[in-house]
């Protein structure tokens, strides 16, 4: 099927586009009243994510409001450890938690790659349902957490402020942590490959917590595994048609290594300028980002100004060309953001970049 809007995929291939494509991390979520309504009827976030029809509905909600250039699968990165038997649940106001976190050598020895069409079949069904309903309007992005970020939740048992348990393991039992990261990486590769087979047209890895590591630990415990994912995804069915984006919060110091990983795109947060990011990754990858999400709390005029600054920063670094830029926030949206301000971002990206 030919896509009606392939700007996002073209930008990832660094091909010319008539305007810069935009999508927003966490574009489906609690800031939308229709999401809150669907969630209330379904009972919980997990009930939504595990029902392909509801996951599809929620994926489409932001696209009905805003002319976004891509859809992202409504799911979560923690579906993979859940399928590995850790027992994912959410506590209101506290975020995700695991009933059975991974702490000992015996816990790690028990872990295996889940079966993608049974244990994670609901995700693949959601991908197929969304592709059918999108009907070629925009491409669908599939995603996974990075091995390091998934391991953070698996070992800490939930969110963390200081990541003390996993970092203690990195320093005192590195071989054990590598064993865990190895099996999680196998699962991530299988998960992304299965989403691609089910119909995902681009893939993103969220390395949300890579930035909490020292450079030496980042290289050993995060980057290494991202490189393996990028390399292994080059094989297999659909590899030629799908681009991979490596997003990492706090990945500024590592842009050159990420650009050399074999991924087609690198997602950057707002702590680096796009001009600088282009300069450091020149010619090797497309860049995705990087409006500070809190810009959405500002006035519409201030938002427009910041969007233009981000677009211009990219073009300035790229010899005046907007090719190879996917506009996004530098991190995900928050529940208290104003949907009208999202409309302002999307409109300014499209109108300003078209000139
Ligand atoms: O971008 C999208 O719209 C796609 C859906 C998506 C969700 N989570 C939906 C979700 C994606 C890509 C994620 C990824 C994710 N999940 C990450 C990495 C993303 C990043 O920004 O770096 C992480 C760290 C998680 C783990 C997780 N899941 C957290 C921290 C939370 C929030 C918990 C809370 O109470 O605020 C979730 C739940 C979650 N995942 C929600 C959504 C829309 C909120 C669910 C709700 O309460 O309705």
Word description of this protein:
With 355 residues, the protein is an alpha/beta fold. Helix content is 48%, strand content 12%. The chain has 15 helices and nine strands. The chain starts with 6 loop residues before the first helix and ends with a helix. Coproporphyrinogen III binds at residues 25-30, 39, 45, 72, 74-78, 95-96, 143, 206, 208, 249, 331-332. Coproporphyrinogen III is lined by residues 25-30, 39, 45, 72, 74-78, 95-96, 143, 206, 208, 249, 331-332.
Cα shape: globular
Over the alpha carbons, how many angstroms does the gyration radius reach?
19 Å
Distance between the termini: 30 Å
Number of helices: 15
Q: Please give the share of residues in helix.
A: 40-55%
Reading the helices and strands in chain order gives HHHHEHEEHHEHHHEHEHEHEHEH
| Overall domain count | 1
Under the CATH scheme, which class? Alpha Beta
CATH hierarchy: architecture? Alpha-Beta Barrel
Strand portion, in percent? 5-15%
CATH topology label: TIM Barrel
The count of strands amounts to 9
Distinct ligands, ions and cofactors found in the model: coproporphyrinogen III
Spatial strand sequence of the major β-sheet: 1-4-5-6-7-8-9
* Main sheet specs: 7 strands, parallel
- Low-pLDDT ranges: none
Q: Which class of secondary structure composition applies to the elements?
A: alpha/beta
Mean pLDDT score: 97
Quick structural summary:
This protein has 355 residues and is an alpha/beta fold. It has helices spanning 7-12, 33-42, 45-49, 52-65, 79-86, 105-109, 121-134, 147-156, 164-172, 174-198, 215-232, 255-259, 274-281, 300-317, 339-354; strands at residues 71-72, 88-91, 95-98, 140-145, 202-207, 243-248, 265-267, 286-291, 325-329. α4 runs parallel beside α7 (121-134), α10 (174-198) runs parallel beside α11 and α13 (274-281) runs parallel beside α14.
